[in-house]
Amino acid sequence: xxxRSEMQTLRSRLPAAVSGAIQxxxxxxxxxxxxxxxxxxxxALPESLTCRAEICDGCRRDLLSNAGVSCDRCGAPIGPYVxxxxxxxFCVRQKFAFERVIRLGIYEDQLRQACLGAKGGRQQALAAGxxxxxxxxxxxxxxxxxxxxxxxxxxxxxxxxxxxxNPAETLAGVWAHxxxxxxSDHILVKAKWTKPQRSLPxxxxxxxxxxxxxxxxxxxxxxxxVLLVDDIMTTGATAHEAARVLKQAGxxxxxxxxxxxxxxx
Length: 265
What we know:
With about 260 residues, this protein is an alpha/beta fold. It has a single domain (about 65-260), classed as 3-Layer(aba) Sandwich (Rossmann fold). Helix content is about 40%, strand content about 15%. Strand 7 (about 230-235), helix 9 (about 235-250) and strand 8 form a beta-alpha-beta unit. It starts with a helix and ends with a strand.
């Protein structure tokens, strides 16, 4: 029987077409034994599905039903006569440390349910599916500004004990892979516990997260353009504070990407 090193040598000498065929056969065998399922509704997916996001056509339509045109500055929905680059009624009086927001849709209906589901401890597949769907829908926005590093909004260490999955980390991983840039979970950390933002009125949210974040490796973001990732944005207070700290530590620009923009305080 050939040793592991001999097998690796043989595999490396296989023509690319043969190697690809073997890998394809392996994937087909796995799909036959464990059929692919929609990450949202769990129905079996057809072999003809070409979207990299493993989400069925019905769920895709539901999730994209409220995508619409959004304000570049805050991600809020805007009408046909509003310039996305100039801000909107929701953010015209707001100052943000981040430059723009890339989002999939509004936090309501099926997208809201999917975002809530993606927070579960074993729901990385759902979060990854949403990330791929957003990439497919907003690929030009992601590529509009050259990104150097992707950074997820972190949980406080005590929260990590009770929340086994931070969807921001999964989203960041997918987008970093597609952008072909590095993702770092260690540049930005949450240094203190804060009250849940959803429990506070809008005018208290910035104060709640003030000094909540710190940068541990400032040398890694000097002059960099950072893609700051979270799953949901409401007032933008969390993203603003995280972006402020990143820029204070040396980042040149911060772009924010979220799956959903919530419109209720």
